[in-house]
Amino acid sequence: MRAVTQQWNAGLYQQSYGFVWEFGKELLGMLAPRAGESILDVGCGTGQLTAEIARAGAAVVGIDRSPAMIEEARKNFPEVRFHVEDVRALPYDGEFDAVFSNAVLHWVQPAEAAVAAMARALKPGGRLVAELGGRGNVAETIRAAEEAWKSVADGPPPSHPWYYPGVGDYASLLERHGMEVTFALLFDRPTPLEGGAQGLERWYEMFGSHWTAALAPEKRVAFLRAAEEIASVKLLRDGGWTADYRRLRVTARKRL
Ligand code: BEZ
User: Fold this and answer.
1) Measured from the CB, is residue 132 less than 6 Å from ligand 1?
2) Which CATH class is domain 10-138+160-194+245-254?
3) Were 101 and a residue from 3, 42, 78, 94 both cysteine, which residue would form a disulfide, CB within 3.0 to 4.6 Å?
4) What is the pLDDT of residues 172-226, one digit of tens each?
């Protein structure tokens, strides 16, 4: 379940962004899936965490808005159920014991439509366990891109597609939709990027198409070099890039 305009290269994502589900395993610990439970995995990507939930004996459904991701997930785990669905328009009403979501909800706007649909999908007393980019996520990465844009192109940089709420923002959304927040934490999680010296350029190419695709090829190269130079002060150490991720982790229970 990713950005409306984002096109996903599922193979490359799986190959280079395995840290997404490696970090997500800690969140799975908070979900603590049990045999026989019905669980919805929102924004399952290539399916690694959905398959872990299935291994615990739960009846899990993984959904993602990207057909490319779902195709890859089905290839990876043919025994698990996956559907192409948009979290804002989930067709479920009171069906799940738990909704789980890792590293996805910051791509979805309006966030309230996603929260309303996830709350609707839960049984009364059902739990939500979610982690997304939180307030300040990739702030330096964005700042570097916007400054670089100004140095190579006319006009203001395109606005980015992400929603990075604080604890209060997201707790209020959940409460408006019948959920009681049981835990919420905003924390820094510096994240080393694969690819050595190319790590940041690859990140912009994978996730920053709102910047890169809007530039002619020669300007795109100048943009990437300028962004690297600006970002290097804070994000480059010993030849490797570390992205300035900040996570908002939240658990909530649907009111009875
Ligand atoms: C994140 O997981 O925080 C993220 C990933 C790609 C683009 C933006 C944010």
Assistant:
1) no
2) alpha beta
3) 42
4) 999 999 999 999 999 999 999 999 999 999 999 999 999 999 999 999 999 999 9
Cα(201) to ligand 1 centroid in Å equals 14
| Boundaries of every domain in the chain | 10-138+160-194+245-254
Q: Indicate the SS3 state at residue 129.
A: strand
Taking residue 101's Cβ as centre, other Cβ atoms within 10 Å add up to 26
106: CA distance to ligand 1 center in Å? 8
- Output the residue whose Cα is nearest ligand 1's atom 3: 133
> For 235-251, what is each residue's pLDDT tens digit?
999 999 999 999 999 99
CB of 103 within 6 A of ligand 1: the answer is: yes
234 token code pair:
């804070």
Ligand 1 centroid to Cα of residue 247, in Å, is 10
Distance 256 CA to ligand 1 centre (A): 34
Buried-state track 34-61, b at ≥16 Cβ within 10 A, e below 16: eeebbbbbbbbbbbbbbbbbbebebebb
**Lookup: tokens for 146:** 């916007």
